[in-house]
Amino acid sequence: MPRLRRSDYYTEPQIQELAAKERAEPGFCCRVKDFVVGHRGYGSIKFHGETDVRWLDLDLHVHFNHYREVIVYTNKSEKPAMGKGLNKPAEVTLLNVKCIDKKTGKQCVDGVKIDKYKVMLMKAATEQGAEFVSYDPVEGEWKFRVRHFSRYEFRDYIEPVGSFDTHFS
Question: Could you confirm whether 163 is annotated as catalytic?
Answer without folding.
Answer: no
